[in-house]
Amino acid sequence: MALQRTLSIIKPDATRRNITGAINALIEREGLRIIAQKRLLLTQKHAEKFYAVHAERSFFNDLCSFMCSGPVVVQVLEGVNAVEQYRKVMGATNPANADEGTIRKEFAESIEANSVHGSDSKENAAIEIAFFFSDMEIVG
Ligand code: CMP
């Protein structure tokens, strides 16, 4: 299967606890390569635009405030079947339902403070990668 790319965000609960390296160790152990990376403090505007698809959800405002509450690390991951592979490595959105050995089982604090985000489809991965990175910043 051809190489694919996906967007990863290490969320404020994880940067606050200084576990970005531990999370990336799991990502790399599972065969994904980090081919772009930057640490950012999102503005409310950025967060609302990035999560616009959830604008009607009851948790939207809390989600956007949380994503601006501290630094995030945004990354492009590359690998075989990367979108699905990274979703497996992350585990279920709610850590209470996440399988053993996944990032969220090991590190997430709650459904909101769930340590990582990953694109949910190949199409959204392309949109989300372009939201944060120019072609020049991605070095595969
Ligand atoms: P993420 O993969 O970043 O995509 C949307 C986020 O909304 C999700 O992870 C969760 O962290 C967050 N969220 C907060 N509350 C809920 C909820 N009740 N149901 C689903 N997602 C939620």
TrEMBL record:
Residues 3-140 form the Nucleoside diphosphate kinase-like domain. GO terms for cellular component: cytoplasm. Its EC number is 2.7.4.6. It is found in: Cytoplasm. Major role in the synthesis of nucleoside triphosphates other than ATP. The ATP gamma phosphate is transferred to the NDP beta phosphate via a ping-pong mechanism, using a phosphorylated active-site intermediate. SMART domains: NDK (SM00562). Keywords: ATP-binding, Cytoplasm, Kinase, Magnesium, Metal-binding, Nucleotide metabolism, Nucleotide-binding, Phosphoprotein, Transferase. This is Nucleoside diphosphate kinase. InterPro entries: NDK-like_dom, NDK-like_dom_sf, Nucleoside_diP_kinase, Nucleoside_diP_kinase_AS. It catalyses: a ribonucleoside 5'-diphosphate + ATP = a ribonucleoside 5'-triphosphate + ADP; a 2'-deoxyribonucleoside 5'-diphosphate + ATP = a 2'-deoxyribonucleoside 5'-triphosphate + ADP. Belongs to the NDK family. Its cofactor is Mg(2+). Homotetramer. ATP binds at K11, F59, R87, T93, R104, N114. One of its GO terms (molecular function) is metal ion binding. Its main location: cytoplasm. It comes from Candidatus Nucleicultrix amoebiphila FS5. Signal peptide: none annotated. Pfam families: NDK. Gene3D superfamilies: Nucleoside diphosphate kinase-like domain. It comes from the Bacteria. The active site is at H117 (pros-phosphohistidine intermediate). GO terms for biological process: CTP biosynthetic process; GTP biosynthetic process; UTP biosynthetic process. It is an enzyme of class 2 (transferase). The gene is ndk.
